[in-house]
Automatic annotation (TrEMBL):
Keywords, comma-separated and alphabetical: NAD, One-carbon metabolism
Entry's family note: Belongs to the adenosylhomocysteinase family.
Record protein name field: S-adenosyl-L-homocysteine hydrolase NAD binding domain-containing protein
Source organism superkingdom: Bacteria
Annotated GO biological process: one-carbon metabolic process; S-adenosylmethionine cycle
Domain S-adenosyl-L-homocysteine hydrolase NAD binding: 275-439
PANTHER family: ADENOSYLHOMOCYSTEINASE (PTHR23420:SF0)
Any GO MF annotation of the entry: adenosylhomocysteinase activity
InterPro entries per record: Adenosylhomocyst_ase-like_sf, Adenosylhomocysteinase-like, Ado_hCys_hydrolase_NAD-bd, NAD(P)-bd_dom_sf
Cofactor(s), by name: NAD(+)
Amino acid sequence: MSLCLESPVVHSVDFVGRKTEAQQLTEMLVERLRAAPFVREVCFDDEQGSWVCTLANGGRGRLALAAPADPAAVADRTHRIVATFEKGNLRDRTSFFQAVTHLPFTDSEMTAVTSELPLTSTLPERWPDKPLADVGLVLTIHHMRDFLVLVNSLVELGVDPAHMTVIDKEYQYANSRRVDAHLVQRLGITVWRYRDLRAGLEDHVSRVTAAGKRSIVMDDGGYVLPMVLRELPESAGHFIGLVEQTTSGIRKLAGFGLPLPLFSVAESDMKGMIESYGIADAAVRNTLRLLPDEKFEGQAALVLGFGRIGREVARVLDSRRMRVAVFDADITRLVAAHEEGFLTGRSLTELVDSHQPRLVIGCVGSRSFGLEQARLLPPRSFLVSTTSRNYEFALDELREGSTAVTDRGVLGTSYLFPDGSEIVVVGHGMPINFHFAESLSNRYVDLVMAGLAVGAVAVAQGGERLQPGHNLAATNEILAESGIVDAYYQLYGPAITTATGSGHG
């Protein structure tokens, strides 16, 4: 027997736009609900000024377009869709709210976000000959608003939306369902979930091959090519190149003989020198947002990994007056951390035992911290990951070694050990800078988004510089030649000095 809900449940979605956009968006939502298989009928209730959705199983939902009670507390021209589930079972409620939250962005919202990514949005002006017209694209990029600007530019550069496939990584972003809705409803792009990656790739190869084209992979975490090479080797020849954004993705390619060119934005000078601090700062800020009542100043912290991100995380924590220790299995990086003034040690277990960190931030990208170390942490300690998916901590070990495991909602998962101590894996071990957030500001991430598009164009155009395998030197050359770093400097560098030698500080 299905579980019935006794009290109405309410969900709301805020969006920004003109009154006509609000009405159009609401009408589109109503029509989608009418077409949904779980809905029997949708009719307008004049008395209450809302739409009543009678569900196929006898349940009922209600939909209304409203205004925020305090306009001063939200952005100008904010509208609110309020969905109330009045009766029915849990399955009906889930379907109803999923449909309501699958809401594309308005033109006003897209105009605003496009203006925040001037480098990415103006790239088509550099290549008016549409160099991507003869390729398909598989994209596994974070479902955030900046991604939509990148997609729009790729379309303007020639990619047919029918020959694009987006893999939804299924992270809990701030606007993940709205981004997904925009891709599908506004742009007509096929979206597959990460859990169905293989089926999505098979579908993409079939569609694009039928059009007489081959494809480029644009990845953020090494999801696509390892799957192709391991499980779909017969499709490897369909892909002409890979543009990778993260070092974790590069690591996942280790051991594979790459049959195509790798354009490594991940390891480029551009990304490493400019973006790393922003990611570290976003990770720490989002951690503090989820733990507003904790006091970390003066407390001990441990950073796992002293690569580009780990180094910046350690510096950010130090600037927030924490006592920071660093561990890295690579002795060269460990020496670098020591010489920058951080506490270090050759044994992770001994370092945890002596330093007693209340905050552990993992920046390695593989199992860097397990049950042995977790049991040595002081009470009310927190584990935080900055790397792709939930690979940073040995969560299976923590679960097996706990007497109780509790889902703490948006905060994460808590583990109670036999001695009575409890730790919290914040964000359930997923990357904290994306957990119900959008990580970097759009203007900050603009350079990397533009770099991904430059990489796709370079792969599509071919040439001797990009050969099968790693092409880091060529990547740096092509990114420098593209002019996007120069444009970034013009936007955010020093003020232009006048002819008389004066300038503005």
